[in-house]
Specification:
Elements (H helix, E strand, L loop, with lengths): L1 E5 L11 E8 L9 E7 L5 E5 L7 H8 L4 E4 L2 H12 L6 E3 H8 L8 H9 L19 H12 L1 H14 L3 H22 L8
Parallel strand pairs: 1-4, 2-5, 5-6
Antiparallel strand pairs: 2-3, 3-4
Helix pairs in contact: 2-7, 3-6, 4-6
The protein binds manganese (II) ion.
Manganese (II) ion (MN) binds next to β2.
Amino acid sequence: MITLHKGDLPGGLDLGPSVAVDSETMGLNPLRDRLCLVQLSAGDGNAHLVQLRPGDAAPRLKALLTDPKVLKIFHYARFDIAMFRHHLGIVTTPLYCTKIASKLVRTYTDKHGLKDLAKELADIDLSKQQQSSDWGAETLSEAQRAYAASDVLYLHTLKAELDARLAREGRTELAAACFAFLPHRAALDLAGWAQEDIFAH
Ligand code: MN
């Protein structure tokens, strides 16, 4: 089931100890483009979509994203958490990123998109048709809502498989260190180092 909420999560909603999170925005520049939608799933097949307008304070959403007891699972967390930092004023933590995990274990490919990952690890076909659409619209279409939900519905499944492979390859600790660094990577992006790898020679 997909539930749409306006402005914030409803009170009394418990999504458990690990929540899949994604966001949809007006574009790929966190400094320019506003945050329109935040999708969440407990990994139970249901998705909660929070539609945001400029100025929405969303205190319950922010509390969840910063709750130290709730792991937030993203695919390419770097972008979403930079958006959250800039537009909601929060540091999202603790984190897990399926894209980083994929890069640490699927060294035999350079295809680390969510669609590729879902296909290989869970045999799920994800449509990316609504990826580029007007997420700032007052009313989101059925197709937009279904697409937005699909980006969070399978992240728990992918995480389970990626965790097994990280353990197999002895890279669990390295992955954890990368996830812990992500808030700083997002801060660097917002501070002007988006295009530069400061670790490079
Ligand atoms: Mn998405």
